[in-house]
Amino acid sequence: MVRARSAERRAEILRATLEMIAERGYRGASLSAVAERVGLSQQGLLHYFPTKEALLVAVLEERDQWDTGGGTRSDGTWRIDLLASLVEYNAMRPGIVQTFSALLGESVTEGHPAREFFTRRYTQVRASMAAMLRAEYGERLPGGLTPERAAPLLVAMMDGLQYQWLLDPDSVDMPAAFQDFLTLLRSTESSAPENPRS
Amino acid sequence: MVRARSAERRAEILRATLEMIAERGYRGASLSAVAERVGLSQQGLLHYFPTKEALLVAVLEERDQWDTGGGTRSDGTWRIDLLASLVEYNAMRPGIVQTFSALLGESVTEGHPAREFFTRRYTQVRASMAAMLRAEYGERLPGGLTPERAAPLLVAMMDGLQYQWLLDPDSVDMPAAFQDFLTLLRSTESSAPENPRS
DNA sequence: AACGAAACCTACTGCTCTACCGGTAACGGA
DNA sequence: TCCGTTACCGGTAGAGCAGTAGGTTTCGTT
């Protein structure tokens, strides 16, 4: 009973933190503001998460579980059509996208507590994407690309489109643009490697 | 003489500000820290730029001039090979890239002073890219894309790669990856539109 | 030589931030 | 019914923040 109530509170706090980070970024999000949003004093919040950084870590971990959960195949790889669905889904949740875009931007600064998280995560996501591309299209992709070379492009496209979309949703149709990219990756014949890398 | 010295100081300040933003982001960059870096008191700095926001605006304006200057053709459009060169150039200046990536990330948060700047800038850059693509490849691009539809992809790719590269330069060869994308945009036959948009 | 502006600085205000310390009240288990 | 744990809150330390007020020095111009 107590446990359940506690877990509920923690979930509330994490949700509020996500919102605050979307609005102000991690550095700009103050503990008091988060606490106020869940109807707690700042000290009450610190009872659940002892430091601000611990709170951020909890947010990141929750998210990590969240989106390594759905959308993957039994062998752990993604399906490319589900990737497109994910982008469509994201387009309906600007809040979440904004949270992680703001966080990603901050994370490149020195000593940011999310930096290591994102670094590790991108390594993992690139590998996952490469596996997906290989499963879907085999070894040869358009332009003589290998799955390993195409994977970072896929990730970059998703992230990059998010920023343009967040800044100006009316001018950028994110899901359509991402589909365009997938078309590009699909529609063309795979030729011999044009500029092989070592 | 005085004027020259003053302009020199301003330039120093702007350079230091760029550094500080790269290290801590805009919100995390304090006036005192910037001032110290140029050997001024915080109030001495405020003599040149009356508010923190004015300082940021000056940084953005300087950058705006800077990179709408080189690389464009007489008619104001870019050349695509110069775009690849720009990416290569950026790969040698992690500081600058970091500054603007951090700023872009922050700018999606509410009420950020750089938000309008980036919004306007991306609109303009997309238009510029579309013009370049049209000049270079004509109306039909691979996958049935129009220049207007490919333009945001080009921009997104540049931005997205920057984040991956900043987080893990050893794992991501940014210029090569961008070249891969350009190859993708080039190497394939232009087919009829597959999924035309309204 | 006198003047005015530019280029700073010291001191300070008022605010916000994270985090610690020490309480207290409720509650579930023994 | 006692007792330990959980779930908080008030107070406050201690630091940093942007920005103001009011100086003084330097220096080019007249």
Q: How many angstroms separate the termini of chain A?
A: 59 Å
Number of domains of chain A: 2
**What oligomeric state do the depicted chains represent?**
homodimer
Largest sheet of chain A: none
Low-confidence stretches of chain A are 190-194
Give the strand tally of chain A.
0
The CATH topology assignment of the largest domain in chain A is Tetracycline Repressor, domain 2
Q: Average pLDDT across residues of chain A?
A: 90
Shape of chain A: elongated
Helix coverage percent of residues of chain A?
Answer: over 70%
Q: Which series of helices and strands of chain A comes N to C? A: HHHHHHHHH
Query: Beta-strand percentage of chain A?
Result: under 5%
Structural class of the helices, strands and pairings of chain A? mainly alpha
What is the CATH level 1 assignment of the largest domain in chain A?
A: Mainly Alpha
Q: Do you know the CATH architecture of the largest domain in chain A?
A: Orthogonal Bundle
Gyration radius of chain A, rounded: 19 Å
Describe this structure in words.
The structure is a homodimer. Chain A is mostly helical. The first copy, chain A, has two domains: about 1-50, Homeodomain-like (Arc Repressor Mutant, subunit A), CATH 1.10.10; about 70-198, Tetracycline Repressor, domain 2, CATH 1.10.357. The first copy, chain A, is built from nine helices and no strands. In chain A, helix 1 (about 1-30) packs across helix 6 (about 95-105), helix 5 (about 80-90) packs antiparallel against helix 9 and helix 7 packs across helix 8. The longest helix of chain A has 27 residues, at about 1-30. The first copy, chain A, is elongated. The first copy, chain A, starts with a helix and ends in a 12-residue tail after the last helix. The relative contact order of chain A is 0.10. Chains A and B meet through helix 1, helix 6, helix 7, helix 8 and helix 9 of A and helix 1, helix 6, helix 7, helix 8 and helix 9 of B.
